[in-house]
Amino acid sequence: MDKRVLEANRVVWNRVADRFYGRNPLPEYGPLAPDEEELGLLGEIEGKKVLDLGCGSGHSLKYLEEQGAAELWGIDLSTAQIRAAQQVLSESQVPVRLFESAMEEDPGLPESYFDMIYSIYALGWTTDLDQTIAHAYRTLKPGGTFVFSWEHPMYSRMLKEEGLLKLVKSYHEEGAYEHKSWHEPAVMYQRKISTYINALGGAGFRIERMVEEARLSGMDLEKHTNSWYTAERAALLPTTIIFKCRKDEE
Ligand SMILES: C[S@@+](CC[C@H](N)C(=O)[O-])C[C@H]1O[C@@H](n2cnc3c(N)ncnc32)[C@H](O)[C@@H]1O
């Protein structure tokens, strides 16, 4: 875990929280990607205890309450995001527990407790992937599911220039880098697909499904395109990768 990076990212996320208020929450998995209503990865939600890693403004948790979740738990690094989530979930009819914490730290979560743990466009912010996945495994019930979406590792490595996709960074290169297009000193991590697969397998998870698809309907394009997520690039490369994993019963 890198405390210096976490502190820098906490400051940035406090500053940009408003821009991301309810931006791409469930049922969406990411810009120009298929959504939960199409994929059905989460399964039956009725009566389930759920934990959101990087819950942001809490809109995904709100969606899960609408689907019948019994308990809503969330972790987020940013004070501003946790405050937004508290407000968004203030009228919830089920117990809500929100922690201002890095997902790679354990804020005191119960063991083998959650039926479902998920993360929408947040897991890739962790400074320690192995530790974050180990916490998810420990706190999930046997038989429980872990679903997360993140930017596809190839998407930021390839840019479209003069009609061609250009590889601007080696696929082999991994680790921390400053995310320039944000105009804020955010530190992100480049990781390979095999790094995610090996981290999940190493923690004990069984991967049930991976999704690398794009959705480019008129509505998707209208809602999601911006200077980073463009129709041109998304037509050639998925913006998003989604993993569905299971902690098997012993
Ligand atoms: C794109 S937003 C997530 C949106 C949210 N999952 C949703 O469904 O609406 C990414 C979130 O990750 C949080 N974050 C960044 N680094 C984190 C870390 N190391 N631990 C926990 N949360 C982190 C940010 O504060 C931000 O709220």
Automatic annotation (TrEMBL):
Q: Which domain of life is it from?
A: Bacteria
The GO biological-process annotations, alphabetized, read as: methylation
UniProt-listed InterPro entries? Methyltransf_11, SAM-dependent_MTases_sf
- Please list the GO terms describing molecular function: S-adenosylmethionine-dependent methyltransferase activity
Domain Methyltransferase type, by residue range, is: 51-148
- Keywords on this record? Methyltransferase, Transferase
Asked if the record carries the keyword Transferase, the reply is yes
- TM annotation in the entry: none
Protein name in UniProt: SAM-dependent methyltransferase
Q: Which organism is it from?
A: Alteribacter lacisalsi
